[in-house]
């Protein structure tokens, strides 16, 4: 049986834009496993898990994850990484789709993987979404937020 670190490293390999094996990625998870995109408050369970990969790869088809540190403590694997790619696909938002800019992203992230018996039970991805949005030219609109709250800065 592969070590927990080997399973996690395989998950990253299968999620690369040049490989993108969503069936293989899903197979690394327990039947009821979860993929939690923490900053975006999204949870993908079971057979929904591949949607997390295809959605991001549709926006950044050359997606790459540079692993900076990988630390294992029993059934938990903690990874510090940078998510990199080129904004070549439409980025859906509640206000509409941000068209491709061709901008490169280099977003810091930390992932926690929880495994049992060689299968991923839970994957919590903590990424700096605000950094990525700024890199594609979609910095927060604080003025609009203040105005929508009914107060105007003077």
From TrEMBL:
It comes from Paractinoplanes brasiliensis. The keyword Isomerase applies. This is Ketosteroid isomerase-like protein. Keywords: Isomerase. Residues 21-122 form the SnoaL-like domain. One of its GO terms (molecular function) is isomerase activity. Pfam families: SnoaL_2. The keyword Isomerase applies. Signal peptide: none annotated. InterPro entries: NTF2-like_dom_sf, SnoaL-like.
